[in-house]
Design goal:
This protein is mostly helical and about 240 residues long. The chain has helices spanning about 5-10, 20-35, 85-90, 95-100, 105-110, 160-170, 180-195, 195-210; strands at about 50, 60, 115, 140. The protein has a domain at about 95-115 and about 140-225. About 35% of the residues lie in helices and about 5% in strands. The strands form 2 sheets. It has a two-stranded antiparallel sheet with strand order 1-2. Strands 3-4 form a two-stranded antiparallel sheet.
């Protein structure tokens, strides 16, 4: 008597991989878009936001005004960012703005100089997406050179030229959601304007200079000082 194997038992098992943060955000945005389109916005219409504060220039709806307490509170105006970041955030006619904002988490991950972990909790679709911080925030800055020379990440990627740095970033899984040309441009601008990126590159230059003169490089550290009194523009 021969037994016929069950065909369902012969099928290969399907491996399920955990979803990335970018995939979760895309699914959340799609659910938000569907619910928003199915909701009658006219029920919550408050009229135009055309009441402008005489003192600080804030925009308000009719009958509401709570901003600077009639000039008692002064907040310095926000400085313009370097291009193309300024246009990507505020120029609605910029061709790459929509793609950048939709995948801003992926761009931030590829250009960051330190790793940071968090537990993702998606808010209700009509709320403001925010980050809750409990206790001190810690970052883990990367070493000047990676343990795996073939895969630099975070701060140690800034010691390379823009072309090579972009190639390394595009090898990451999250790079599927970014545009290579925009990533290269942003990487160049961060390397030119960010003091920490400059510090990584400067330490690399010092070590190479010592090696050229036959000197054994000494141990170097990058110390983060109290930033009070330092222009915030220099810390971006």
């Amino acid at each position: 008597m021969s037994l016929t194997p069950d065909p369902l038992l012969c099928l290969p098992r399907i491996r399920k991989f955990p979803k990335t943060d970018a995939q979760l955000m895309r699914e959340h945005r799609e659910r938000h878009r569907q619910q928003k389109n199915a909701f009658d916005d006219s029920l919550l219409y408050l009229g135009p936001m055309d009441n402008i504060c005489y003192f600080c220039g804030a925009y308000h709806f009719a009958g509401t005004q709570s901003c600077c307490e009639h000039g008692k509170v002064f907040i310095p105006p926000m400085r313009k960012l370097w291009e193309p970041l300024q246009s990507l955030y505020f120029n609605h006619s910029h061709s790459g703005r929509s793609q950048f904002l939709e995948n801003i988490l992926s761009y931030n991950t590829l250009l960051s100089m330190a790793s940071s972990t968090h537990d993702r909790v998606l808010q209700n679709p009509y709320g403001v997406q925010s980050v809750k911080v409990r206790g001190p925030v810690h970052h883990m800055p990367s070493a000047l050179y990676p343990n795996n020379p073939g895969r630099p990440r975070y701060g140690n990627i800034y010691v390379y030229d823009p072309e090579r740095a972009t190639d390394y970033r595009m090898n990451e899984m999250v790079s599927r959601y970014v545009k290579e040309d925009l990533l290269k441009t942003l990487g160049e601008k961060v390397a030119q304007n960010n003091v920490f990126a400059k510090a990584y590159r400067h330490m690399d230059e010092l070590i190479k200079e010592q090696q050229e003169h036959g000197i054994s490089p000494w141990a170097m550290r990058m110390k983060l000082i109290d930033a009070r009194g330092v222009d915030p523009q220099n810390l971006r």
